[in-house]
Amino acid sequence: MIRDKKILVTGGLGFVGSHLVDSLVKDNHVTVVDDMSTGRLENINMSAITNIKTVEEFIRSSNEKYDIIFHFANSARIARSFEFCEETLLNNYNSTVGICEYIKRTNIKTKLIFASSSTTEFADKFNNPYTFSKVVCDELLHLYKKHYGLEFDIVKFYNVFGSDRESLLGDYTTIIRKYMDAVENDQILTVYGTGAQARDFTFIHDTIDALHIVGDLPSEGKVYHIGTGKATQILEVAQTFKHKYYHVKPRDYEVAFVMCKEPNVPGWSAKTNVSEWITEWRESNGIR
After folding, report:
1. What integer best gives the mean pLDDT of the chain?
2. How far apart are CA 79 and CA 154, in angstroms?
3. Distance CA 77, CA 169 (A)
4. What is the per-residue pLDDT across 168-211, written as a single tens digit (0 to 9) for each?
5. What's the rounded Cα separation, in Å, for the pair 99 and 138?
6. CA distance 68 to 224
7. What is the pLDDT of residue 80?
8. What pLDDT, in 10s, does the model give residues 231-274?
C-alpha cells in the first residue's frame, strides 16, 4: 500500500478516482481535482483536500509539489465520445498536456500514473473519439519523457465494475450497472447483437489494489494491464442476472473481444469473478 506520500488525484470524484482516494487518505496527504462533469459531491472524502475545478484551472493556481499524480480526469466512455466529440478530444488532450507541464514546472521527479484505456489495445485508433484521444495522450507522455525526463507509467483498466458509484455515469454507465438498475426496476435487459462480444470484467477493489502496487513501483514508462485475464460474453452476463432480456441491433463501433491478455502488475491478480459477484448480488436482493 502507498504510504507517506503527497498525492494528487485528478478526476478524484469519479467512479475509479473516488475509490482510489478513499484507499489513500488514511496514510497519505491527498488532494483531489474534479470539474464535476461526471464526478459527484457525495463522493467527496473529507480527509482529502478537494478542488472543484478543471485541471487547467487548478494548475494555473497551484505550485504544490507532489510525489505521485494519478491523472484520471479524462472524458470517458466510447458511446459518450460520439455525442461529445469535441469535449472528449479537447479535455483529454488539454488536461494531459497540462499535467505534464505542471510536473515539468513544479517537480520533474513526480511520478505520473495515467489512466489510459484497454480499447487502445483492441480497436483501431480511428474507431471512436475516445480511443483516439487516449492514443494521443499515451504518445504525449513518451514525448515528455524523451525531452524533459517525465517519470510516468500507464495503467489500462478492463471494464471495472462493482460499486453504486458507477451510476454517476448516467446513460453511459457500465453494462453491469445498467443491468442491475434494469433488474431493480423490472425492466428488460438489452443485449446488443448476439451478445457473443466478450469483456474482461474487473472488480473495483481489485483494481484499486493494483493501483497501489503500481504507485509503489519505480517509474519505467511501462504499461500495466489491470484485468482478470478472463473474458465473459455479454449474453452470459445477462443470463446470470436471471432476468428477461432481448436482443437489439449491434452497434457498429463495438469491439467483439476485449480481454487483458496478460495481467502484469507484479504480485497482483484479480480475486473477484464477475459471474460469482452477480450471483451474490442477485441472491442478496432475493432474486432467484
Report:
1. 94
2. 23
3. 9
4. 555 667 899 999 999 999 999 999 999 999 999 999 999 999 99
5. 13
6. 16
7. 86
8. 999 999 999 999 999 999 998 888 889 999 999 999 999 999 99
How far, CA to CA in Å, does 63 sit from each of 105, 114, 148?
Answer: 8, 20, 18
CA 3 to chain centre: 22
User: 137-144: long-range contacts (C-beta < 8 A, 24 or more apart)?
Assistant: 137/74, 137/92, 137/93, 137/96, 138/114, 140/93, 140/96, 140/97, 140/100, 141/96, 141/100, 141/112, 141/114, 141/221, 142/221, 144/100, 144/103, 144/104
CA atoms within 13 A on the CB side of 185: 9
Whether 34 and 17 have beta carbons less than 8 Å apart is answered as yes
Give the three cell numbers for residue 97: 498536456
Amino acid found at 88: T
- What is the sign of the dihedral through the CA atoms of 253, 91, 50 and 42? negative
From residue 87, give the alpha-carbon distance in Å to each of 67, 70, 98, 168, 240: 29, 21, 16, 18, 36
Residue 236 CA, chain-centre distance (Å), reads 23
State residue 158 phi and psi, 5-degree precision.
-130, 95
C-alpha span between 61 and 225 (Å, rounded): 34
Q: What share of the chain is helix, strand, coil (3-state, %, to 5)?
A: 40, 20, 40
The cell numbers describing 63, all together, are 505550485
